[in-house]
Specification:
Helix content is 48%, strand content 12%. With 233 residues, the chain is an alpha+beta fold. It is globular.
Length: 233
């Protein structure tokens, strides 16, 4: 699903122009807006389509509940920044930067996450092919090694966060990184594959057995989407 930031969105333009809130700029990249408002993206599959690996109940709560909260929070932060700028209150605008980063990052991260998933044997699961496979073999040695590195990174996250397969634009290589909370991938890194390690992504089904969730999610990873992101990187 395409996600674009409409340059005509006044609140977004105001937020990105203010140097005091540059921290939130990365969180707005690849974010969908309609009439100046961030919107919850539709999924290309039903909530239950990823079962038994991710339950339909988790998917519905995760998408309609948690992701919607980030969308609402992002719109609220952008509106507050717009109001503060109209009053010339740049201190207040700067004070909203952490909320812009958190909710904007949450919106961006989850939008990428949904696109990273597909029903098993219907675009999800299996192993990467073509150029993506070659890049993984070159930088990690094998697909199995990549899986191990990402699962180890996920297990090492203290609290909430994400593990990402990224392309380092400077080095031209693929790397595995982690981000705390909802911090977006930014700078020299281009996000290719993200796995949510927040409890809301798995707890209803796996409880405290999060290692089982980390193992199961590979069965619904959409490698076609990952490959397209690498091509565009």
């Amino acid at each position: 699903m395409a996600t674009t930031l409409f340059r005509t969105a006044p609140a977004a333009r105001a937020a990105l122009r203010a140097s005091s809130v540059k921290i939130g700029a990365a969180a707005l990249a690849s974010t969908s807006f309609t009439r100046g408002k961030a919107t919850l993206p539709d999924l290309s599959y039903d909530y239950g389509a990823l079962e038994p690996y991710i339950s339909g109940k988790i998917m519905e709560l995760h998408h309609k509940g948690h992701h919607q909260t980030y969308v609402t929070g992002l719109n609220s932060a952008l509106e507050t920044i717009e109001e503060a700028k109209a009053k010339g209150d740049y201190i207040q605008a700067a004070a909203i930067a952490p909320l812009l980063n958190f909710h904007g990052g949450g919106h961006k991260n989850h939008t990428l996450f949904w696109e990273n998933l597909a029903p098993n044997n219907k675009g999800g699961g299996g192993e990467p092919e073509g150029t993506l496979k070659s890049a993984i073999d070159k930088d990690f040695g094998s697909f199995g090694t990549l899986q191990t590195q990402i699962n180890t990174a996920l297990a090492g996250i203290q609290g909430s966060g994400w593990a990402w397969l990224v392309k380092d634009k400077s080095a031209g290589t693929l790397q595995v990184i982690t981000k705390p909370n909802q911090d977006p991938v930014a700078g020299n890194y281009i996000p290719l594959l993200g796995i949510d390690a927040w409890e809301h992504a798995y707890y209803l089904q796996y409880q405290n057995r999060k290692a089982e969730y980390f193992k199961a999610i590979w069965n619904v990873v959409n490698w076609g989407t990952v490959a397209k992101r690498l091509e565009q990187a």
